[in-house]
Amino acid sequence: MKQTEKQTEQVKQTPQKLNFMNDYNSVGHPNVLRALADASAAKFPGYGTDAETGRAVAAVRALIQNEAADVHFLMGGTQTNLTAIAAFLRPHEAVIAPANAHINVHETGAIEAVGHKILTVASNDGKLRADDIRAVCARHGGDEHMVAPRLVFLSQSSELGTLYSMAELREIRAVCDALGLYLYVDGARLAVALTSPRNDVSLPALAALADAFYLGGTKNGLLLGEALVIANPKLTADFRYLIKQKGGLLAKGFLLGLQFCALLENGLYFELGIHANDMALRLREGLVKRGFTFFVDSPTNQIFPILPERAAEALAANVLYEVWEREPNVTGGGKGKTAIRLVTSWNTDAAEIEAFFERLDRAMRQ
Amino acid sequence: MKQTEKQTEQVKQTPQKLNFMNDYNSVGHPNVLRALADASAAKFPGYGTDAETGRAVAAVRALIQNEAADVHFLMGGTQTNLTAIAAFLRPHEAVIAPANAHINVHETGAIEAVGHKILTVASNDGKLRADDIRAVCARHGGDEHMVAPRLVFLSQSSELGTLYSMAELREIRAVCDALGLYLYVDGARLAVALTSPRNDVSLPALAALADAFYLGGTKNGLLLGEALVIANPKLTADFRYLIKQKGGLLAKGFLLGLQFCALLENGLYFELGIHANDMALRLREGLVKRGFTFFVDSPTNQIFPILPERAAEALAANVLYEVWEREPNVTGGGKGKTAIRLVTSWNTDAAEIEAFFERLDRAMRQ
Amino acid sequence: MKQTEKQTEQVKQTPQKLNFMNDYNSVGHPNVLRALADASAAKFPGYGTDAETGRAVAAVRALIQNEAADVHFLMGGTQTNLTAIAAFLRPHEAVIAPANAHINVHETGAIEAVGHKILTVASNDGKLRADDIRAVCARHGGDEHMVAPRLVFLSQSSELGTLYSMAELREIRAVCDALGLYLYVDGARLAVALTSPRNDVSLPALAALADAFYLGGTKNGLLLGEALVIANPKLTADFRYLIKQKGGLLAKGFLLGLQFCALLENGLYFELGIHANDMALRLREGLVKRGFTFFVDSPTNQIFPILPERAAEALAANVLYEVWEREPNVTGGGKGKTAIRLVTSWNTDAAEIEAFFERLDRAMRQ
Amino acid sequence: MKQTEKQTEQVKQTPQKLNFMNDYNSVGHPNVLRALADASAAKFPGYGTDAETGRAVAAVRALIQNEAADVHFLMGGTQTNLTAIAAFLRPHEAVIAPANAHINVHETGAIEAVGHKILTVASNDGKLRADDIRAVCARHGGDEHMVAPRLVFLSQSSELGTLYSMAELREIRAVCDALGLYLYVDGARLAVALTSPRNDVSLPALAALADAFYLGGTKNGLLLGEALVIANPKLTADFRYLIKQKGGLLAKGFLLGLQFCALLENGLYFELGIHANDMALRLREGLVKRGFTFFVDSPTNQIFPILPERAAEALAANVLYEVWEREPNVTGGGKGKTAIRLVTSWNTDAAEIEAFFERLDRAMRQ
Description:
Four copies of one chain form a homotetramer. Chain A is an alpha/beta fold.
């Protein structure tokens, strides 16, 4: 990857901060950009009615091994979540989600703005348990003075980088079946989940378990774009109307089709996930070697080491990261500890990892 | 423009249909794509907090000659309209718009979905008159059993390619001031309006008259993107919350910043509008020479010739266009007439115009 | 009716204005008040789960000859309309209604506030035609850029006091069946419709034609209350959740049950409608005798005579009425004419009619 | 009170269940019914524009000692809460409430249905603490990816019958001022709060502290009705539009005016609260004497004794009450304990209290 080499040079030569802030910090993977450039002389029909989008739909269906699935390309995660939930639920129906779910905390009330309550469950590791779902439903059963729980929302990987195992998902699916709930999986970071060494949930298996889910592109090399899969045929009717109404029907829909073709047709989607996980593993190993502990044990591209508060502050002068929790909420930490989040991505390279440790070691000495 | 030359070759050699369907049928202008490619090694902060976006904001402010204006970049027109209206109005407040306005007809009820009624006024040419606004307000004044009109929505150029003159806009502004209304201008096609030979409304003048408006990028060479200007400081508070809530806060906001820099910093925005208008003028002149009349007299990149129904059908085999009206609604037409819409764009070239007339002449002979 | 006699005395003795403003201007029919007083020592379960509400449901079902119908009691018309439409439609689905429908003009955007667009059809007499419905659907068919028409809203009697005939309703029903639309009938003034001499639509017939409708109580002798009938079993699921969510589930639901028992179990509902129509007929006959014409030919309790503007103004000093239309909208009127609305009710009595004509004659002489 | 004597007879003679289920189980206080009957010959203007409503507004203003307050009469609590919050907040703004608040648990998502998120705080006694508010705001400050907390919702008395002291309310007000929050008080049961022996918050004091609050009528002797006071002039604009839009503008608004005059003009409002508290005190004392403990220490008309599970079940055959909590959530209880809720009201009489204890003693012996 020549592009990454150039970036590495840049990192070495300039005193700029290392960026472990998130996985959407650069334009997009060179192959994706090239796909756009290669198509620049062509003219396309609008709103995703073009042939490239058709190819991208076929690519998704092939990967999930479900030729009948409804597939839609949207521009971002919040948009995808709010559109799907607005389409799937009646006004009195509610979502069950972990309290730290993205839709509950970091989407500015997007779900409530389309009219639906989120019933939350406390979760240390970002995951929902089957028992949590049962408990929420037991409290709400059949009482019209309360909302009716109807859709289980979970993220794979979760907000804390953790993974649901196949056994866990099967149990959740069984609860959903028993209680008449839809299962929706936010897959903004599904690529790192699928390619994590600890993962045992294949993409076809996920597609068979969930009523709907999406494969995130924004956080895995695209300029923008998420591929929503609606596997439950009861939920597909008129979905494009909802996309349009909520402002998500891209005029140049072919841009999403072109990008997803580049990402999905030759395995790039998985390569990029593998790379991000590899880089995270190097971070993790280096941190373990240095004796750090973690806020949560996360096997994907987000890791949460616990640092002495002063070291975290010193490090911030040279490394971009997010402070995740401070005392007294840093379980397993202690006095003056800070849990930080480090995110790797397809565009993180080995030199950046090395540079990170140099800067961390320096921060620890200060 | 090498890219256009290549396209011209393609048009000549291949028997594919000419595309006069719309102005968002290709990836984007080469300069815009180049700006993205050139930035591909860099890392940016998310959600439009980056320096490129800051530069693009500065570019907008310079062009509109208002350093204090609030500027936000969004992904598409429907999204921009629904977000702005949701932010600006209280629940009982309504929009006044021409009946054929995009928000009333072609956004799948997006405005109603965020809770607001659109009070419509019949309009043959896509434009709203000051008297129409007065009449709507007279019917609603102070009666809490009816919605309260609060925002005037118009498009420059309009849905029918027509233009508001400076005198018309001043009169509308005066009515808005007198009646306590906001003036919002949908500028999806503002570039062709500003550069039309018949235009007398400068960008700074528009910015001084409207409470808010947007400069459309999607229909003027960008991959995607609209630049919303909020000139009225009473309307700016917490606007980014609304963008996020409605699903419009692009994670890689810098993509919009980079594109708008390419479009605005060196006059490309105006060049592309001029080109689209030039191509439309050639179409118009050729049609006039051949004796065709028009559904509406439109001085921008959308033109609406009236064809014999059979010729329109024959033409459709070789040219992509939109049927606008059929009998009996084709005023000035007659029996068996069809009004069609032809749209030119920055990527239309002279060879396509020539090819169009060849195919039209052939269709007329059939 | 002793109560009415007392009122008559009052009308004769005091110089107060006669009230033909509306049909909800007094507490309620004495029988209804008595039913409440008689139950004042009892204790009831809340939210309409009581036996009296059960009896009222049975009374409705008996009258409509449909034992399977879902019946709910709500507090007012706007509330009933918005709750039903919110329950029946998905977010992108729209209502078709006459432009002068109550939901479109006089409910402060209540339907839009729950997210739905109203597609309107111009109507001189307050009625919708089957062809109007076909035309609206033809313009919207299958295009996800536009809302999807899904529910036909009409009022029996209409906003202008007119009636749909059985033939008209059958044709509308056929169109609804052909186009997949629900038929909803606002029956705020259904009692005067059913008891009009010109009516040919029985209550069971209406119940068999409409997917849902309501029998208005507020405008027919109750303190408050509307009885919503949902005949289409596809629309009944979880309806009480919607009532509660929209603020319409009365804690003391038994108050509605008690009132509707008093209104429905012994024919009072129809008696009151007959009386209101009788009083309107006397008004009409007296007006015709005096040579007045009407804005619309309405066979129920709302009549719309056209008066010279100066006479209308003089009359207003002694009679409460609503100005309906002024020139130039008074078709069939002429220069300086005003159409006014006179409403009779169960509590209008013959002495008031006499007094009205005295005052009208005096106003004409001024 | 003759009516109550009659009721007492009934209780003694019939084997029907005693009703301690809630405080809205009978038609209404005799004085209130009489006020309606006395006005039955009169005709009124609609929608609360009548003189009786004006008198009721004046009565509220006199009691709260604020002649400038905006006062509106609505039909029920959920309706009042959702209308006020819809009127006061912009789309991205959120409510802070105790997790067991009525709006969070028992209004079927009414607040979310008008678009707003509720940020909840765990609370054992139904009360919110100033520190809770600070903590919620600290987590949300200025981040547009999260909702903006804007309105503090509390109930006086709370869902668990507890009271805020003057000191607590002052501290909450100070936090609201410091953080730019509105303070809204749900006063569905304000009468029992104001008249509790432990209360130190006068009605004028509450009116001076809250931006808005309501005096509940439904649970204090009215057929239906709540009096919303908007003390903050920034929140009053166009409020009647919101009432109408949300379906809460009663056509016969004078019914609310008449009832509130009967309740407020001669002190009945307070008398009824005193009576309900007295009856609750007798229950409490009898329970304490018998050695029962309580789920929460509540000095108003809701009390929460903890019973052995089997006794609770036996009692249910003869007494209507609500099961509040079962093991393991009955703190201070123990194995096989059930916390029940007993509610007294203006219509509870001494004989019912005696009968309750007979039945309780019997249940304990079983």
